From TrEMBL:
Principal location listed in the UniProt entry: membrane
A cellular component term, taken from the record's GO annotations: plasma membrane
Lineage: Eukaryota, Metazoa, Ecdysozoa, Arthropoda, Hexapoda
Protein name: Gustatory receptor
UniProt keyword annotation of Ribonucleoprotein present: no
Main function: Gustatory receptor which mediates acceptance or avoidance behavior, depending on its substrates.
GO BP, sorted A to Z: sensory perception of taste; signal transduction
Gene: LOC115628758
Domain of life: Eukaryota
Chain segments annotated as transmembrane: 47-69, 84-107, 145-167, 269-291, 303-323, 380-398
Compartment(s): Cell membrane
Residue ranges of coiled coil: none
Length: 408
């Protein structure tokens, strides 16, 4: 039987990961190595780490002091609406800076955990599920689609932001430099967010594969119930028990990967949520500022580009929360599959004990909290958007008040 043809992702997967590692290293995050293919030379590794520390300290300490010193020049304008927009944009950059500081500290503290435990545990699980993934084309295609989608979305947002920086050519060089600084801060935090998204989606893929294997074991278990007692039945039950114990160990490893990844990145993710809140507010008010200067029949090209950027930023945050919600749903599907084992008649004491252990593992699982405050799911994105819209209404009212005060 001929081997199935490899998909485009399977043929070029390592190239995508190598591109991600190089791109992260440019922004001083050599710790992000999706699939280590060959060890770096010790001297290159040390230089990469030193470069990352120097760049991070430059972004965290030197440049904020410089822009803080020129704060008046950055926000100086005669247009009251433009000045309000500059204040909001400045606050947006401050939130990005806070997220970068948290990311830098977390990367330094969890360097070995990210580079060794998470990445290597993910590689081990990938090797264990690789064969079953080839047979389950649906799960593989879903994983590949979201990887393509995330890759194209991030690169599209980079291009849009680069075009926005080029559009500032007529502005002062200080504002253009500040826009470049904000772009670099966004890329710095986005690299770690992409790594967390990749780990989370890998966890979702492994849970789906685990559920497929559990269903196969469940069908075998039902067939054993039709066999006569004695004979080869104890032998088959013993093999089935060993298989179920192996799947339970993989279930524990998958959850450990997800929990450790979320624990390491929880403060960065909280910063990302705050950044999303301020970004949505900034995007809404920027669009309001653009549309207020022209009619709907004369919508300009920059307005359409900015709408595309605002939509892309929202989708980027939404899919991160969507993956975590899908993990919760897949855990419910696994619990339902394991429950089917308990509906069958008792065949072997050891097998019943293993089913009970698996059920206890599922009962002990709890959806992780983000910094002990909230769940990372779609409800969080809804709350962020509602809050951003409320602040946007407040800004519009303040803008109208300033306009009427200037007329008086």
């Amino acid at each position: 039987m001929p081997a199935p043809a490899l998909s485009f992702w399977q043929r070029h997967e390592l190239k995508f990961y190598r591109y991600g590692h190089i791109y992260a290293s440019i922004y001083g995050q050599a710790v992000i190595d999706y699939v280590p293919q060959r060890p770096m030379r010790p001297i290159l590794k040390k230089l990469s780490i030193v470069y990352g520390h120097v760049l991070s300290l430059l972004l965290i300490l030197v440049l904020p002091c410089y822009f803080g010193y020129h704060y008046q020049e950055l926000t100086k304008t005669r247009d009251h609406r433009m000045q309000l927009l500059l204040y909001v944009s400045f606050s947006n950059t401050l939130i990005k800076l806070a997220t970068v500081i948290v990311t830098y500290i977390a990367n330094t503290v969890h360097f070995k955990a990210i580079n060794h435990r998470c990445t290597l545990l993910r590689q081990r699980l990938e090797a264990l599920f690789a064969r079953s993934l080839c047979r389950s084309s649906r799960n593989r295609r879903r994983f590949e689609f979201f990887m393509y989608f995330k890759f194209c979305l991030i690169n599209l947002m980079m291009i849009i932001q680069a075009c926005g920086i080029c559009a500032l050519r007529g502005e002062s060089w200080l504002r253009m430099l500040f826009a470049i600084y904000g772009f670099v801060l966004w890329n710095y935090t986005e690299n770690m967010a992409d790594y967390f998204y990749w780990i989370s989606h890998s966890v979702l893929k492994y849970h789906r594969q685990l559920n497929v294997q559990l269903r196969t074991v469940s069908r075998q278990f039902r067939k054993l119930g039709a066999l006569p007692r004695g004979g080869m039945l104890p032998h088959h039950c013993c093999r089935l028990c060993d298989r179920l114990a192996l799947l339970r160990e993989r279930f524990i490893e998958i959850n450990a990967l997800h929990e450790e990844s979320l624990e390491m990145h929880q403060f960065q993710l909280l910063g990302l949520m705050l950044t999303t809140l301020i970004n949505n507010l900034t995007n809404l008010f920027t669009l309001f500022n653009m549309l207020s200067k022209q009619s709907l029949e004369e919508i300009s090209y920059p307005v359409l580009i900015y709408i595309l950027y605002a939509l892309g930023f929202y989708i980027d945050t939404y899919i991160v929360t969507l993956v975590n919600e899908n993990i919760k749903e897949e855990m419910e599907h696994i619990a339902l599959t394991v429950r089917r084992f308990t509906e069958q008649a008792t065949l072997d004491v050891r097998l019943d004990q293993e089913i009970e252990h698996f059920s206890l593992q599922l009962l002990q699982w709890r959806q992780p909290y983000l910094c002990g405050l909230l769940h990372l799911d779609r409800r969080l994105v809804y709350l962020i958007n509602v809050t951003a819209f409320s602040y946007f209404i407040t800004l519009v009212q303040f803008d109208l008040y300033l306009g009427s005060a200037n007329k008086v």
